From TrEMBL:
GO terms under cellular component: DNA polymerase III complex
InterPro entries assigned to the protein according to its UniProt record, in alphabetical order: DNA_Rep/Repair_Clamp_Loader, P-loop_NTPase
Protein name per UniProt: DNA polymerase III delta prime subunit
Transmembrane domains' residue ranges: none
Cleavable signal peptide: none
Recorded superkingdom: Bacteria
Biological processes annotated in GO: DNA-templated DNA replication
């Protein structure tokens, strides 16, 4: 289970707190995206609401586990989800979701003495939703606990952070991610796994995304852009072909994340002068990544921008 793999220390800290008489009512599960914090939250919630001797349903059918995450973007996308098809999500967790959750908190837990609210991820809540949540954190109903998944802890309001205990999740090492890839996608060959691990920066979710998106070829082209430059745009043409003519938003995001990771890896063996260029290019890729969930990028322009940023780093590198 990705949510627990490599996070023994976090689980021990959680289990110790859950077994104490003064369990804190609100927790932030903090770490980079793709570590399995959401799965961890669901497993932790199932343990917290369990009553000795009383059969418990699975977390997704448990009346005392409330999950707030991204809903389908519209009725059409809701139908796709119901049919098991790929579907587009809303950009944010809304204030209406929080208010519906709060209406449920007026009643007592159904199967025991505890109820858990999971928000995944909290840093995608719209402003009104955050303000509404703050009221529940300030005066939590008896027996109610909050698990707030956060990919970017710094984006949460200080008033939210101050009312929560933070449980941090460290990036996984290469061996742990390789074990997950071997288990989840046994079809992936060693070269593909190696590229995914190198680009994932300790995130097994990102590594799985890279493998599922078949980004191994892209990784090679991006590295060539950095190593050789692209004076005649040939590599950018190859990059466009590998990405595809009409990549969906998820693939665009994966491509940007891969380019960002490839650029970041250059810092370790760059001169001081080149490091400034790497940092600048990395910053632009971070900007692109933050906009990918909001804007519909033109694929051709996106390829040109990514390829140009990576090619700008082409110059002799120093040994680390």
């Amino acid at each position: 289970m990705i949510g627990l793999t490599g996070h023994d220390q976090a689980w021990r800290a959680w289990a110790e707190a859950a077994g104490s008489a003064r369990m804190h009512h609100a927790w932030i599960l903090a770490g980079i995206k793709g570590l399995g914090k959401g799965a961890f939250a669901r497993a932790a919630a199932a343990r917290l609401v369990a009553e000795t001797g009383l059969p418990q349903p699975a977390w997704d059918a448990h009346p005392d586990i409330i999950v707030l995450d991204h809903l389908p973007a519209n009725d059409s996308e809701e139908e796709k989800r119901a049919e098991g098809k790929p579907w587009q999500k809303k950009r944010n967790i809304t204030i209406d979701q929080v208010r519906r959750m709060q209406a449920r908190l007026i009643t007592r837990p159904t199967l025991g003495a505890r109820r858990v609210v999971i928000i995944d991820p909290t840093d995608d809540m719209e402003k009104g939703a955050v303000n509404a949540l703050l009221k529940s954190l300030e005066e939590p109903p008896a027996g109610t606990f909050f698990l707030l998944v956060a990919h970017r802890l710094g984006r949460l309001l200080p008033t939210i952070r101050s009312r929560c205990r933070v449980l941090r999740f460290a990036p996984l090492d290469d061996d742990a991610i390789d074990a997950i890839l071997r288990s989840e996608v046994p079809r992936a060959d060693a070269l593909t796994r190696a590229a995914a691990i190198a680009a994932a920066e300790g995130s097994p979710g990102a590594a799985l995304s890279f493998v599922e998106q078949d980004l191994g070829v892209l990784h090679g082209i991006m590295q060539r852009l950095i190593d050789e430059g692209d004076e005649h745009l040939a590599l950018r043409g190859a990059l466009a072909e590998a990405i595809g003519a009409r990549p969906d938003r998820e693939r665009q995001q994966a491509v940007i994340d891969l380019a960002r990771a490839v650029a970041a890896a250059e810092l370790a063996h760059s001169s001081n002068e080149r490091q400034q260029r790497v940092i600048a290019a990395h910053g632009e890729l971070v900007r692109l990544g933050s906009q990918a969930s909001t804007y519909n990028f033109d694929p051709a322009l996106l390829v040109m921008e990514i390829g140009g940023l990576l090619a700008s780093l082409a110059m002799p590198r120093e040994t680390a």
